[in-house]
Amino acid sequence: MNVKFTTSPVLTPGSELHASENIRTDMLLIGKFAGMKLSEGAQHILSSSTVASEETEFTGDECEFKLVDAPPGSPQKKILFFGLGRAQRFGSHILRKLAETLVDQALEAGCTKVTIPVLPNRLTQGNITLSATAHIISCVARSKLEKLEGSNTLTFEFACTPQARRHLQAGVRARRRHADCA
C-alpha cells in the first residue's frame, strides 16, 4: 500500500474554534490532553455525532481513542478523538501510538485521507518539535503501510499555519534518524 504526506497551510492563529469547518477529509484527528476540556467545536462534534446517544465522555487519557461518524453536513466523514495523556509526559511514545491508531482506524473505516490539524501555540512545543512530530508520524505510517499489499494510497494531510508548513515538510522528508521511528 502507498502512503502520501501533504501540508495544507489553512490555519491561522485564533482560528482554532472553527478550524475543522474548512477541512474536507475522510478522517479528522482531534487530540485532547488529560485534565483539559475539549474545545467548544470539538465538544459539539462529539455531542452531535452518531455516538451522542452513547457515552460521550472523552477523558484524553494516554492513547485512549474514540472514532465517531461526523455530524450531518460536516466536511469530514469520521472524527478520531485521541487521548494525548498529560501534557508534561507527551513525547515520541504517544506520537508512535497515535500514528499506529490513525493507520489502523483509517484502514478499518475505508478512508483514503486523514487530516492532522497542527494548531498554532500548541502545548507540546516545549516537548517535541514540529519536524520531529511529522518525522515520527511519517516513519510509523510508512512502516505499517509498506508491509500491506495493494495499490491504494492513504494520504496524511497536516493542516497547519503557513509558518509551520516548512517544519512539517522537513520532518516528513527526513530520513529515518532514530529509534523513535521504530
How does this model look, in words?
The protein is an alpha/beta fold and 182 residues long. The chain contains four helices and six strands. A six-stranded mixed beta sheet has the order 1-6-5-2-4-3, sandwiched between helices. Helix 2 packs across helix 3 and helix 3 packs across helix 4. The protein starts with a strand and ends in a 9-residue tail after the last helix. About 3% of the residues have low confidence.
Question: How is this fold's topology laid out?
Answer:
Layout: E1 2-8, E2 25-33, H1 40-48, E3 65-69, E4 76-85, H2 92-109, E5 113-117, H3 130-146, E6 153-159, H4 162-173
Parallel strand pairs: 1-6, 2-4, 2-5, 5-6
Antiparallel strand pairs: 3-4
Helix pairs in contact: 2-3, 3-4
Characteristic key phrases:
single chain, 182 residues, alpha/beta, 4 helices, 6 strands, 24% strand
Order of helices and strands: EEHEEHEHEH
The major beta sheet can be summarized as:
6 strands, mixed
Could you give the count of β-strands? 6
Main structural class: alpha/beta
Strand order of the largest sheet: 1-6-5-2-4-3
**Averaging pLDDT over every residue, what do you get?**
84
Q: Helicity, in percent?
A: 25-40%
| Gyration radius, rounded | 15 Å
Summarize the structure.
The protein is of the alpha/beta class.
